[in-house]
Specification:
single chain, alpha/beta, two-stranded parallel sheet, 11 helices, globular
Length: 429
């Protein structure tokens, strides 16, 4: 840059003091000759740089009109092999699978608001799964359960604090197995605390499960220290009767004394819980761990809603009541639950559903999963589900009800622990 500046200012590019006596005419002619040659050389370099910049800019920013064939792909795309045709010219990798880019037009209409996203958008989950949880020969959970994970690990704390104010959802498939080791305010002793252990008869492959209040205290301190907000998933299906001949069946009336005792302890501890979910994938049609009839789901929601309202009656902000956390969004079932709620409908603050866009993690059951990860058309098909959820909430609000929040309470690439080296990497659905 200094040489370029000097050439334009007319100052010598070679210091006379460094090349012999300035009084010698022959050495002066040699210096003059070298000066002219150097200037010509730098002029050529500057011209080359300018032409290369213009050409590169034209290549990179060229937009092809509809119907035209591109005259030349951008240098960037050629280097990445995204638009180079022929097996021999494209290197191995995901870029070779990308379609040729097409020109599109985008129109933004700013006259009306479609939806809003609040600060609670970012959410992560700590699950219950123990290290014995395996799928398709892969056992990925290790000690990541909320019951056993090292809450003082510097990498974990750094990750959570960086995402603050992140929502930490505590829940998952074994939610409806968990009891809370807490005595009731009426003097009833705490139930015996049994660890999660494998089971050959349970639909989820495990039985038992217990959250001690000492661990609950640590989880709350963890969020207080790092700036996360807790959404806790309460046991719904565990409050109903079961029968050995049908492990999915749930009947009788809901017995929620243990849930109530847990909520009483939480309120007495003045923990600032953002919300309580109720049940995890236990609806009668698509339940994974249990099939709870709609009326019984609603009965539990009504009772828990009343408990939260009573306990937090003097609080400026009460926890949200969230659910039903179905494994899929079944419009018919959601409307059925809304009708069954009747005048209790406004007590549900947030409606939730789960979605796993890539299906099961099994290579045998889902051989095309890795192709779907990079398929924009496949991933974009999720809008069908999203449109249905929006239609559901709009239907409720058109009926004169309050404004409801709609959350995707659980989401990921592939269910059943994902697929090793794919959904636990940066390429996921």
């Amino acid at each position: 840059m200094q040489a370029f500046r000097n050439a334009h200012e007319g100052t010598p590019l070679i210091n006379p003091a460094s090349g012999g006596s300035s009084s010698s005419s022959s050495s002066g002619r040699r210096r003059s000759s070298r000066t002219v040659g150097t200037r010509l050389l730098w002029s050529f370099v500057v011209l080359s740089i300018a032409m290369t910049t213009l050409l590169t800019t034209a290549l990179v920013y060229r937009i092809d009109a509809p119907g035209e064939q591109p005259m030349m792909a951008s240098l960037f795309e050629m280097m990445n092999g995204a638009l180079v045709e022929g097996e021999d010219s494209c290197p191995e990798g995901p870029a070779c699978k990308l379609p040729r880019r097409k020109a599109i037009s985008t129109v933004i209409v700013g006259e009306r608001m479609i939806s809003t996203t609040n600060e609670n958008f970012v959410c992560v989950t700590m699950d219950w799964w123990p290290k014995e949880k395996c799928d398709y020969g892969h056992c990925p959970w290790h000690n990541s359960s909320m019951l056993s994970i090292n809450l003082d690990h510097p990498l974990l704390r750094s990750a959570v604090s960086t995402m603050a104010p992140v929502v930490l959802r505590l829940g998952g498939s074994l939610t409806d197995h968990i009891i809370y080791e807490v005595p009731s305010t009426s003097g009833k002793p705490a139930p015996p605390c049994k660890p999660i252990r494998p089971s050959k008869t349970d639909p989820l492959g495990f039985e038992g499960g217990c959250l001690t209040m000492a661990r609950w205290d640590k989880l709350n301190k963890f969020c207080k220290d790092l700036g996360c907000q807790i959404v806790f998933d309460l046991n719904l299906a565990g409050g109903y009767e079961t029968k050995e001949s049908d492990p999915w069946w749930r009947g009788g009336s809901w017995k929620g004394s243990n849930v109530k005792a847990f909520l009483e302890y939480t309120r007495a501890s003045e923990y600032p819980i953002l919300g309580f979910e109720l049940g995890n994938e236990v609806d009668v049609r698509h339940g994974v761990g249990a099939h709870v009839p709609t009326k019984k789901v609603v009965s539990a929601f009504v009772k828990v809603s009343k408990t939260i309202k009573d306990l937090w009656s003097t609080a400026q902000v009460k926890p949200l009541l969230i659910g039903p956390d179905s494994s899929v969004f079944d419009m018919e079932w959601y409307l059925e639950m809304a009708v069954e709620l009747g005048h209790h409908l406004p007590m549900v603050d947030v409606w939730t559903y789960h979605i796993y866009s890539l299906g099961p993690g099994s290579p045998l059951l889902n051989p095309n999963m890795t192709d779907h990860m990079l398929n924009a058309t496949k991933l974009d098909s999720l809008h069908v589900t999203v449109d249905k959820t929006r239609e559901f909430v709009q239907t409720l609000e058109d009926g004169g009800n309050k404004k409801f929040q709609l959350w995707c309470g659980e989401a990921g690439g592939a269910y059943n622990s994902g697929r090793n080296l794919y959904t636990n990497s940066f390429i996921s659905g």
